[in-house]
Amino acid sequence: MRSLKKQSDPVPMNRRQALAVFGGAAFGAAFAKPAFAEEILDNEIYVASVRLTDGRDAIATVNGSGTLLNITPIPARGHDFAVRGDGLVVAFARRPGTFAVAGKPGRETALPQKVFFAPADRHFNGHGAFSSDGRLLYASENDFAGGRGCVGVYETSNFSRVGEFSSGGVGPHEILLLPNGVLAVANGGIETHPDFPRAKLNMDSMQPNLAYIEPKRGDLTELQSLPPHLHHLSIRHLTWSSVSNQVWFGCQWEGDTDAGVALVGRHSRGKAIDWLEMPQGGWGSMRGYIGSVATNADGTLIAVSSPRGGKVCIWRANGTFQRMVNRADVSGLSPSASAILATDGQGTIGSLFKTSAAPVLGISAFDNHLRRVATS
Amino acid sequence: MLEVLKTYMLATALAFTFFFPALVAEAQDEASYAAMNQRFLAGYLSPAAEKFQVATGNLAATLQAYCDNDTGGVEAALADSIEAAAGLMILHLPITQNNSRNARILFHPDPRDTGGRQLRRLLGGDVPFGDMSGKSVALRGLGTLDRLFSRLNEQRACALAATVAVDLHETAEEISAAVPAFTQTVLNPGPDNPLYRTHAEASAKIVGSLSTSVAALRDRTIGPMIGENAERSRWRSAPLRHSGATFDYLQAQIHSMTDLVAALELSSEGDIGTAKSNFSFEAANLERFLTSFDRSVEVVAAKEDSRQRLKAMVFGLNGLEQVSSAGLMQALGLKSGFNALDGD
Question: Residue A221: left if φ>0, alpha if ψ -120 to 50, beta else—which one?
Fold first, then answer.
């Protein structure tokens, strides 16, 4: 039987035990609202994977002003979410986890309606996306025995796995459904195996790429591979700008620390990758690591976070640099109605356009990603 | 043996109960972090790099002499190099990571046996080995020497071992040569520094190496060795198992961590002192425990008694990780970052 375990557990947790964790109490709002509320609306609801102050891992639902609405305990660290237009959310375990949790979180309701697992020879890589009609869920997965990436396909009526197709590379991370129904896949190029948690097994030979896949047939329609001198540049996170009609992506540099290569690029179908320039402090100030990428609500601004660099950089959709915001261990980014919200590893949330970020009572750390679910 | 196990687990539990209360950060300023970093560089990094350089130089010379004249001492020379390598492999810092230096010292984990397959291909042919520097990292370093040591009576295998040892020594020289520049980078943090903005950030990376190493040791070596059961154990992936040096290597890593903490010359007072003594207690327990294993990883992974002791190792390593991250880091007022730690 596949196990669901914390990395540090000597004895693996089986699925029944995992389900017991999910069955644990999710509790409603009992926390004080932080002092700031400014432009962020109370009626916007967001989800994030978090570490609670009592040390447990959980999925948290917070409103736009940073009030914790409810939590769903999970048995290991979570990562990102797929969000459907009707508010259905699927939370994925952080790689190399095997669980996913689906539900419609709201002001009064926590997440779990359905817990499901990757098959025995696959594990999730923390990200997923819904199909255009919402009937299918695509999950980035690792075929670790075959040493290849794949996209698992799940029927959302019951979250049964109905198929898979190649991701077009190794180590698929974020996948993104584009407006034309094509999937963009960030194949980070790093091979991993769940028997050796989080060990990077092919650093010398990694070959990252940005793949475009027609999901109905799983056909690879375009592959943007990186040149040999950038083979250590792992493409990880994606967003779509409806203003520039481009996929914007953030990378992690796995080579020597002083290389100073560009970590953010944008791509138009059929064209070469356009690497962004970083005027303030150079790319070295981002410490080789982009944690997440997001646009604002109208797609005119693109923000990228660097937890190691302790900053968020913002570009206009035309590629001109706009500003830099310093915030320690910042990573989660999400558009709000009128701003971009950011979360960090110190458990705070706040608008990038304001100087203040407020701690959320009960949360000691936000994981890499933040997603807006709905406006209630 | 179960008594040993019970005693070990009880000692660990008692340590946590009595010596691991909630630690609070003591006031540290940039000057004190700078001084601590200086002590690390002078008291740990430089000697560790020099030790590895000397050991690998001796290994290369001893191996060449063995291949030429069948002289002895190769096992001891390999053991010295493994011990010295452990001192550098616990450092998750650019000086050991840049240019794939750590993979060139020991390519691990290697679940697909890439190194073994490449070695079989190379030995099976008759082309000259040439320079190792252009070859796959899976074929370089201690992993390949570990495989070759039982075949030194074969001329081609011996010649390859000598070549690999020379290459390993060159890696050691490269690390030693990088120490002065790395020292300057650590000691001069700032906005333009490519690695560290503050002395505290550099300290966090140095001390953070401890918990990263403990987690790697647990998750990449001991955990796979245990597997879900004896049949599914990944004992074949244990580092340096062919020469029977797996547990020596693990012990050397734990010992090196103790040496690193000692080199920091932390206060013995207050919460820092408590954290330091907790670390020493846990590390000493683990070192003792590691001496009790059979040298054959296959035997260890197959026998129920030793499997139980491997599980106790995980327990102990969890404890050591705790006293490293929540203990030392917290007492020193250092933060490694929740999202910044190992990337995703």
Answer: alpha
List of chain B residues with pLDDT < 50: 1-2, 4, 14-26
Cβ <8 Å between B228 and A12: yes
Contact across the interface for B318 and A8, Cβ inside 8 Å: yes
A199:B103 CB<8 A: no
- Residues A323 and A308: beta-carbon distance below 8 Å: no
A236 occurs within a structural domain: yes
Q: Which of A196, A236, A331 sits opposite B109 (nearest CB)?
A: A196
Which CATH code, of 1.10.10.350, 3.30.420.40, 1.20.1420.20, 3.40.630.30, is assigned to B2-331?
A: 1.20.1420.20
Closest Cβ–Cβ partner in A7, A12, A368 for B344:
A368
Interchain CB distance below 8 Å, B94 and A257: yes
Q: How many domains does chain A have?
A: 1
Chain A, nearest residue to B232 by Cα:
A195
pLDDT for the residue numbered A204: 86
Strand order in A219-225's β-sheet?
A172-177, A183-187, A209-214, A219-225
Question: Is residue A108 scored above 90 in pLDDT?
Answer: no
Nearest to A267 by CA among A182, A183, A184: A184
Mean pLDDT for A85-98 is 93
List, for residues B296-328, the tens digit of each pLDDT value.
999 999 999 999 999 999 999 999 999 998 899
